[in-house]
Design brief:
Length: 544
C-alpha cells in the first residue's frame, strides 16, 4: 500500500497522483489526515441531510465546515497538528448534531471514533480517495469535492466580511453526503457536478458583493513593482480582511506593506489606496516565493494558499500564517472572538530587519473588474465593431512551477495584435509584465483580479452578450484558455460550465482525477479540450 494518495492538483505526480510524498511538499501524514477530515465532514453532512437539520441555525458549525474544507486546498495548510485539531473539533460538532438529528442508525462516517494521531492515521488509510473502487464514480465524487473546496474558500472570504449565503452551506452538506451514497448513478453525479458549478457562481457573486461593498469597486490602477527603503511586511494569499487589519496596524509605524502573488489585486480597490505605507507588489506568482522571500528580507504573512515549504529555519522564522493556512514551525496568528488579529509580532519583527532588496522596477496596470470594464463599455464595443478588437481570450486561473506553463507566456506573446487577454488569478504572472501594448487606450491584458474575480469576467461576458443582443454566450468573440492548478480553479471551471460556456481549453494538463470516461463526458458535453501547440491553438481560437 502506498503512503498516501492525492490527485487533487495539476502537479499530481506522474500525472496520476502523489503516493510517496506530495509534489507540493505535503507529507503523507498531512495528506492522510486531510482525507480523514474530509471523511468526517461527509459524516456530518449525512447527519444534516438525513436528520433534516436546520442549516441556517447551525452558524458556527457551517463556518467550521467551510474552514475545514479550505484547510485541505493545495498549499494552504501543511500543519499536522492543525488538521488533527480540526478533526477533533469536527467530531465534537458531529456528536452535537446527532443529538439534534436523533436518527436510528448512523453510518461509519458519522460514528467512527479515534483516540490519538496513530488511530487517526490508521482510519484515514481506509477512507481516502481510493476507497471508492469504481474509477468513474471516484472521479465524479472527487470533482464535486474539489469544487466544494474552492467554493468554501470563496465563502470563507465573504464570511470574513460578514456576508454569507445559507444555500451554499445547505448545498455543501447535500453534495458531501451524496459522495457517500452508493445508489447514485454516474448521471446523478454529473447533474450534481453542474449544480456545484451553479453554487460556485453564487459563491463568487457573494464574494464580489462582499469585497465591493466593503472596499469599493476595483478601478484601473498602476501598481508599483519597485521598493522603498523602509522595513516592510509582505502579505500573500487571498484574504483582503487580513490585509485591511495589517494596514490599520502598520499605519504610522514606519513599516511598509507589499503584496505578493494573489494579493496584488488589493491595490485596485479604493479602500486600500488610503494607506501611504501600502507600497506596491513584490515578486511574482506563488511558486517563485522561495527566492523572492529571501530577497524581501522582512516577514511574510500568509492569509491562505499557496505556501511553498520554506527551505530553512531562518525563512520559517519570518513566515507567519493565519486563517485556514498553516505550516509547522511558522507562527500562526488566530483571530479573537471578534475576528480581530494581533499582528504586532510581525510588525515588531519587520522593524529589526532590512528593507526589501529591489528585484525589478516599474509599474503594472490592473483593476479591470466588471464595474471598470462596464465604465469602458462604449470604448470596448466601438473597438469590437470597428474590428480593432477581433478577439478576447480569457486566460484566467493559476500559475505553477512546471516548465510546460511557458506555453502561456508564448501564447500571450504570439496572440495577434487585435486580441485582448482577459485575466484573473495568479496565471497572469506568465504575461502581465510583457510589453503587449494597448488597443486605442485599452490595455491588451485586462486583469480583473484574483482567481475568484473570474466571476467579473463572466459578468463582463454577460454584459457584452446583452449589448450585442446575442442569445448565446458562445456567440461572443471570446475564447477560453484556462490554466489550472488547485481546487479554486476547479470551481471556476464548473461555474463556467454551468453558465453554458463551451470549448474551454484547459491546461497545462487535464486533471489526473478525471477518469477517461468522465473526461469524455466533458469533451462531448462541453467541448473541453487540453491545450496543444501555441501556434495551432492561436489559429484555432482566432478562427472560432
Ligand atoms: Fe500531489 Fe497536488 Fe495532492 Fe500535493 S495537492 S499531494 S502535489 S496532487
Ligand atoms: Fe494561484 Fe495558488 Fe490558483 Fe488564486 S495562489 S490562483 S494557484
Amino acid at each position: 500500500m502506498s503512503n498516501m494518495f492525492c490527485f487533487q492538483c495539476q502537479e499530481a505526480s506522474k500525472g496520476t497522483g502523489c503516493e510517496i510524498i506530495g509534489v507540493c511538499g505535503k507529507s503523507p501524514e498531512v495528506a492522510n489526515l486531510q482525507d480523514l477530515l474530509i471523511y468526517t465532514l461527509k459524516g456530518i453532512s449525512q447527519i444534516v441531510v438525513k436528520g433534516e437539520l436546520n442549516v441556517p441555525s447551525m452558524g458556527t458549525i457551517n463556518h467550521e465546515v467551510t474552514n475545514a474544507l479550505f484547510m485541505t486546498i493545495t498549499n494552504a495548510n501543511f500543519d499536522e497538528e492543525a488538521i488533527e485539531n480540526q478533526i477533533r473539533k469536527m467530531i465534537g460538532y458531529r456528536e452535537e448534531l446527532k443529538k439534534l438529528a436523533n436518527l436510528e442508525k448512523y453510518s461509519d462516517a458519522a460514528s467512527f471514533t479515534v483516540t490519538d494521531r496513530d488511530s487517526m492515521l490508521k482510519k484515514a488509510k481506509l477512507v481516502g480517495v481510493l476507497s471508492t473502487k469504481d474509477e468513474d464514480v471516484r472521479s465524479l465524487r472527487e470533482l464535486i469535492i474539489y469544487g466544494l473546496k474552492g467554493m468554501a474558500a470563496y465563502s470563507h472570504h465573504a464570511l470574513n466580511i460578514g456576508k454569507e449565503n445559507q444555500n451554499i452551506y445547505g448545498f455543501t452538506y447535500e453534495a458531501l453526503a451524496a459522495t457517500l451514497d452508493n445508489s447514485l448513478s454516474a448521471d446523478d453525479l454529473v447533474a450534481l457536478t453542474l449544480k456545484t458549478g451553479e453554487l460556485g457562481v453564487s459563491a463568487m457573486a457573494l464574494l464580489d458583493d462582499a469585497n465591493t461593498s466593503k472596499f469599493g469597486n476595483p478601478e484601473m490602477t498602476e501598481v508599483n513593482i519597485g521598493v522603498r527603503n523602509n522595513p516592510a511586511i509582505l502579505i500573500s494569499g487571498h484574504d483582503l480582511t487580513d490585509l485591511l487589519q495589517l494596514l490599520e496596524q502598520t499605519k504610522g509605524t514606519g513599516v511598509d506593506v507589499y503584496t505578493h502573488s494573489e494579493m496584488l489585486p488589493a491595490h485596485y480597490y479604493p479602500e486600500f489606496k488610503k494607506y501611504d505605507n501600502f507600497v506596491g507588489n513584490y515578486g511574482n506568482a506563488w511558486w517563485k516565493q522561495v527566492e523572492e522571500f529571501e530577497s524581501f528580507n522582512g516577514p511574510v504573512l500568509f492569509t491562505t494558499n499557496c505556501i511553498v515549504p520554506p527551505r530553512n529555519e531562518s525563512l520559517r522564522n519570518r513566515i507567519f500564517t493565519t486563517g485556514a493556512s498553516g505550516y509547522p514551525g511558522c507562527t500562526h496568528i488566530e483571530a479573537d472572538e471578534h475576528g480581530v488579529k494581533d499582528f504586532s509580532a510581525i510588525i515588531e519583527m519587520a522593524k529589526t530587519l532590512d528593507a526589501p532588496t529591489e528585484i525589478e522596477t516599474g509599474k503594472i496596470v490592473g483593476g479591470f473588474a466588471h464595474a471598470q470594464v462596464t465604465a469602458l463599455a462604449d470604448k470596448v464595443v466601438d473597438a469590437v465593431k470597428s474590428g480593432a478588437i477581433r478577439k478576447f481570450v480569457v486566460m484566467a486561473g493559476c500559475d505553477g512551477r512546471m516548465n510546460s506553463r511557458n506555453y502561456y507566456t508564448e501564447f500571450a506573446e504570439k496572440l495577434p495584435q487585435d486580441s485582448v487577454i482577459l485575466t484573473a488569478g495568479c496565471a497572469k504572472y506568465r504575461y502581465n509584465k510583457l510589453p503587449l501594448g494597448d488597443i486605442g487606450g485599452i490595455p491588451r491584458v485586462l486583469d480583473a483580479g484574483q482567481c475568484n474575480d473570474s466571476y467579473s469576467l463572466v459578468v463582463i461576458a454577460l454584459k457584452l452578450k446583452e449589448i450585442f443582443g446575442l442569445d448565446d454566450l458562445n456567440d461572443l468573440p471570446i475564447a477560453y484558455n484556462i490554466a489550472w492548478y488547485e481546487q479554486k480553479a476547479v470551481i471556476v471551471l464548473l461555474a463556467l460550465l454551468y453558465l453554458g460556456v463551451k470549448n474551454i481549453h484547459l491546461g497545462p494538463t487535464l486533471p489526473a482525477f478525471l477518469s477517461p470516461t468522465v473526461a469524455n463526458v466533458l469533451v462531448e458535453k462541453f467541448g473541453i479540450s487540453p491545450i496543444g501547440e501555441v501556434d495551432e491553438d492561436i489559429e484555432l481560437f482566432m478562427a472560432q
